[in-house]
Every structure is written in structure tokens, then in C-alpha cells.
Amino acid sequence: MLNSKCKICRRLGQKLFLKGERCLTPKCPMVKRPYPPGQKRKRRISPLSEYGKELREKQKLKNWYNLRETQLRKYIKEVLKKRGKVEDPATFLIKKLESRLDNVIFRLGFARSRAQAKELISHGYFLVNEKKVNIPSYRVKKGERISFLPQKRKKKIFQDFPSILKKHQPPSWLELDINKLEGKITGEPSSEEVALPIEIPAIFEFYSR
After folding, report:
1. Nearest to residue 105, comparing CAs of 81, 82, 85, 122?
2. DSSP state of 199
3. What pLDDT does residue 78 have?
4. Which residue ranges does the chain devote to CATH 3.10.290.10?
5. CB–CB of 45/39 below 8 Å?
6. 8 A C-beta contact, residue 97 and residue 65
7. Residue 37 · residue 7 · CB < 8 Å
8. Are 170 and 109 in contact (CB under 8 A)?
């Protein structure tokens, strides 16, 4: 699983942080081998067509948020229908994706990756406003609080979380209470703060074909 996720980044030519903190270390394969898997370092790579570029950006976004193709297509189609009704479709899309519960769990530092966050949510580890939610795509709203199910928090793997989270800085629209292991949605994500290394307009073009 580790190698397969690292190959995704190498194939797309972009570090997508699919393995959490490991991606920030010298052990990251994108540091050691910053070229597509199966290719030698010096091999010349043919330039991509416009379709190829759009496909690459789409794959980046899908893997960045750990989405299935059907999920991403649904989000994009919803945004495309809003064209002309929203000021910035790209920002509208980012807000939708960032507001997913699995992404928020990851942003709060409660999981090492979005993939792990999705797994923990599916296994019933979290409460939203004191109610268990096991749907990773659940869209959180301003004012909602996210916490661990009490019996899950007692598990050994979470006992060191308070000290680990002291080094973690969540985005400005999330508030983190380290002692309670609780997060609160205090605002809305912005495209400037998220700073995705992805060309969203190219993805819209891909799905508009």
C-alpha cells in the first residue's frame, strides 16, 4: 500500500502527501526518485496533450482528497451546474471538498492521512455534535463540533495524541482543543489558504468534454 500510494505521486509528478508525515521526510520516494515509476531518470518524457494535462490534474485532485471517480464526477457536475450562479466555481468546489468530514479529521490532525481518516470514520470513531457519524463524505457546517467517541479515545494509539497535536497547526477555519481532543468549525475554507497545487479550471474542462 505504501509503494502504491507513492507511485501515484511519482506518476503524476506532484507530491500529494498521501502518506502524511512521511511525505515531509527524506524517505519520501518523490525526493529519492522524482520521475515516473518504470522510467529511468534521464529518459526524455514526451509532452502531454491538452487532454493529457486535464486528465493529470483530475487525477491529482481525486487522489489528493482520496475520492472515487464517481464521487469526484458528482462534485464536479454539481459545480458546473452552478456556473454563472457562484462567483468563483473553483473556490466553490474547494469549499465542498474541504468540508468533507474525512478531510476535516485529517486537517485537525486526528489522522495521518485522508485515507486513514476515512477508515476511522467508517469504523465509528467520531461524533459530530455528540452524534455518531460514520459517513466520510458528511459535510460539516460552521458551529459543529467534532470529537472522539469516548470508548474509542481510550484506545492506546490515541493516548499520546495531546502531546503530538501540540506541534500541529490546523487551518484558520478550524479550532482545535488539544486537551479535549475536540475540533470546531469556526469558518469556511478559502482557496488561498488551501493552496492546492492543482489547476482546477483544467478539471472543469475535462468534465465538460
Report:
1. 122
2. -
3. 94
4. 100-185
5. yes
6. yes
7. yes
8. yes
Query: How far from 81 is each of 38, 86, 126, CA to CA, in Å?
Result: 40, 10, 33
Short-list 8, 6, 42, CA closest to 22: 6
Answer yes or no: is pLDDT of 194 > 60: yes
Q: What is the mean pLDDT of the chain?
A: 86
Q: How confident is the model at residue 79 (pLDDT cuts 50, 70, 90)?
A: very high
Enumerate residues 6+ apart whose C-beta is below 8 A from 68.
Answer: 62
CA pair distance 98, 78, nearest whole angstrom: 15
Q: What is the mean pLDDT of residues 19-24?
A: 59
- Closest CA relative to residue 108, chosen from 17, 171, 189: 171
Dist CA 145 CA 133 (whole Å):
12
Cα three-residue angle 108-105-82, rounded to 5 degrees: 105
User: What global pTM score does this model have?
Assistant: 0.79
Q: Which CATH class is domain 100-185?
A: alpha beta
